[in-house]
Amino acid sequence: MSVGLTRALRWTRANLFNTPLNGTLTVVIAFLLLRFLSPMIDWAVLRASLSARDDRACAAVGGACWAFIRDWFRFLIFGRYPYAQQWRPAIVLVIFVALLLASFSRRLPARRLAPAWLGGLGAVALLMRGGVLGMPYVETGLWNGLPLTLILAAGGLGASFPLALLLALGRRSSLPALRVICTCYIEAARGIPFIAWLFLMLVLLPLFLPPGLVIAKLWRAEIAFALFIAAYLAEVVRGGLQAIPRGQYEAADALGLGYAQKTLRVILPQALALTIPAQVNTFIGAFKDTALISIIGLFDVLQDTNTALNDPAWRMAYVEGYLFTGVIYFAFCYSMSLYSRGLERHLGQGRR
Amino acid sequence: MGSGVQDRPMIELRHVYKWFGAQAVLSDVSLAVARGGRVVVCGPSGAGKSTMIRCINRLEDHQQGEIFVDGMELTADVKQIEAIRREVGMVFQQFNLFPHLTVLENLTLAPIRVRRMSRREAEDLAMLHLERVRIPEQAGKYPAQLSGGQQQRVAIARALCMKPQVMLFDEPTSALDPEMIKEVLDVMLELAQSGMTMICVTHEMGFAREMADMLVFMDRGEVIETAPPDLFFTAPRNERTRLFLGQILRR
Ligand SMILES: Nc1ncnc2c1ncn2[C@@H]1O[C@H](COP(=O)(O)OP(=O)(O)OP(=O)(O)O)[C@@H](O)[C@H]1O
Ligand SMILES: [Mg+2]
Q1: B3-98+166-249: what fold?
Q2: Angle of helix B103-113 relative to helix B119-132, nearest 10 degrees?
Q3: Are residues B114 and A255, on separate chains, in Cβ contact within 8 Å?
């Protein structure tokens, strides 16, 4: 007991009060934490209402109105998906989390990752859509909330990746025509605001499809999203390609490797490993940009919150609503960031 | 095989020219290396030594003249270029190992992907060559974990795993600390004794005397003198060769 106490005191002196400057900083920071953290805790925990009937009842207590979240929880997550069928999007969320965990823990070997995600996304679409195995059909307009956000993000990011590789390689190709096409595409996509791009694609995509073939707005948005991110990602990858020394190309050439083998086995692995931080930056930005698709009438997780806040009983609970949504976004973005850090460490092992 | 094939030089350059812009980097270079021939190329900096041997596996293209490797002519034809590159191994001054692959993976990549060997076969071959360059225990490491001398020996083994007919070396010891130069040169001497056709750009004159059966002196893009080692070192015919040897041997 007293041993622990002396040790704690010693640690405090060594780390927090070892110089006059450090001591002052410790005191100032402690004061600021108390000054700002304590009202936060007071609001979010001590005076929070979990069982109030409406926002006025919460206001009377003066704390956070978590009762709103409790009341609207299922709508905030699943939106207008038929209530009795919401076990289906619930399983979808489980599938997504399982895929993320499997990828992040590196349980799955890298070459199984793509098939696992493809299979997972197939299962997701099947569950959401129904019409088989006794599950009633649900149209894509009712795929709302978090599952929609994740479908857009996973599908869009997944599809954008191979496209970005092709664009980046194309932009560095020795064939002038290919180079011009890729450059024009990248500059066009980067030069247009995402919202304008979204509207443009919704209208333009059907023109490229055979007449009679109609694809749901959700899938058109998904394609537009993938095409948009690919342009940004292509530039990130190109930056990595530029950083590979000429000797690597020459060594691969001298061994007789053809263009495909040289690119796939020697150049791209190095270029991709070099640009992980910038790739993840693009991915995180893109994940948050999925919120913009509400503008074409798709109900993602943020739009669900907006809708729920229209309930006259909870008009004033917007801080709680947006905090809740913010935490969901944060959880996914931060896990991407953690994953990239692990991957960097793994790929960096003794290699430079 | 008919004796005709045997008699043809392994490598032949006929009146090769190359320009970088207006500057002639190779002018009227002719050279023939017999099967099993061991040539050392030397000359002052900027003479065009690197450019010449890089033309032999088309890392640079020549603009006039003809280059033959094992009877095949080097043209712009990609298939032909790749066929020639399979037969010509190259070792660079800067090693150029693939940093994201282990030593073993560096060695097996091309045999598996280009020669279509099975993984087992390629790995056995890789271990054989790692033993030959005396570092079998480093197979699982990444290049960055090895010393310069070890990296260069891995690079030699990597080229040998393609079972080439010819090996090209471009100043293989110039980037090495003095104490590592010998371990690389020893490996190259053994390779020379095994009958490999070799062309080596180097300033290691002691090594050249021991390994080469022919010395080539280049200056300003031209081959100035070609001679067997005893003549080259004791009785060089050209004034410029004499000057160069005087400088380099005094060092
Ligand atoms: N890519 C290039 N573009 C323009 N000029 C070049 C290029 N590569 C080489 N040169 C020029 O060609 C000439 C011959 O160069 P090369 O590298 O073949 O010389 P070297 O004999 O190998 O010299 P060193 O001993 O310094 O390696 C030099 O004058 C060099 O400046
Ligand atoms: Mg050189």
Answers
A1: Rossmann fold (3.40.50)
A2: 130
A3: yes
